[in-house]
Design goal:
The protein has 244 residues and is of the alpha/beta class. It has a single domain, classed as Purple Acid Phosphatase, chain A, domain 2, CATH 3.60.21. The chain contains seven helices and ten strands. The strands form two sheets. A five-stranded mixed beta sheet has the order 3-2-1-9-10, covered by helices on one side. A hairpin with a 2-residue loop joins strand 4 and strand 5.
């Protein structure tokens, strides 16, 4: 595997899948990775129809591209974990429908995972930090600090739901703005993340931030709304070519 299309946070923008479809159909990438936060957005608490439209589009996208990998975002996790502290924009009205869509996606193999590793690239929603991994290692004494992919994935999968709802976790970290949240670097890898809005895709050391589709409260785009394609072997990246 080499060329991966990165689909960052949707936040109820199902049209992003239309654009991703065209990029994949043009042969620009071999598969896609969606970085989480399919739902919730400013002022949409009661717009259950848009929640369903977005999840139905996600379902159809996976049916068309079954090798797509899905990451769990903090907004998605709110609906999977009833005891979690809700993120901003969480819709109690959409909870039942969201759980049903979670079940349907699971049936076709589209259940989100916290972490995916493809060749030399780690995909998570917010970023894998040294601090959070050290915390996990201290809990599970049978596991040394992870030095290989297998140990890393096993350790992350051992984490309890509450472990993900803490500062610095892979669904909440913001290493771009908090110097204490140092990205995991014990492997020669590139980390690709969403979660933290940026004006354009930006790489800082081993961390590539791609959340260019988020908006301000009034709906004004924060970023340039461009998709990124990552070469998972060389760790190089570029913007997808689009005519729109």
């Amino acid at each position: 595997m080499a060329q991966v299309l990165v689909i960052p946070d949707l936040h109820l923008k199902p049209w992003m899948f239309d654009r991703a479809d065209r990029i994949l159909e043009a042969g620009q990438a071999d598969r896609a990775v969606q970085l989480g936060d399919l739902v919730d957005d400013w002022g949409q608490l009661k717009n259950v129809g848009l929640y369903n439209e977005t999840m139905e589009r996600a379902y159809k996208f996976h049916k068309a591209h079954p090798n797509t990998l899905w990451c769990l975002g903090n907004h998605d996790a709110d609906y999977y974990n009833p005891y979690a502290l809700a993120s901003s924009g969480h819709s109690t009205l959409a909870e039942i429908d969201m759980k049903e869509w979670g079940r349907k996606l699971g049936e076709i193999g589209a259940s989100p995972r916290v972490i995916h590793i493809v060749d030399n690239v780690i995909f998570t929603h917010a970023g894998l930090t040294e601090l959070w991994l050290a915390y996990l290692s201290s809990l599970y004494v049978d596991y040394d600090y992870p030095q290989d992919d297998e140990t890393l994935i096993r350790l992350v999968n051992l984490a309890a739901p509450d472990d993900f709802f803490m500062e610095g976790s892979p669904i909440w970290a913001r290493p771009q703005v908090d110097e204490q949240q140092v990205p995991y670097s014990h492997r020669n890898c590139l980390q690709v993340v969403g979660h933290t809005p940026v004006e354009k895709a930006k790489q800082h050391a081993t961390l590539l931030s791609t959340d260019t589709f988020s908006t301000y409260r009034d709906g004004t785009p924060i970023g340039n709304q461009k998709f990124v394609i990552v070469d998972t072997k060389t760790k190089e990246w570029h913007y997808a070519e689009e005519n729109n």
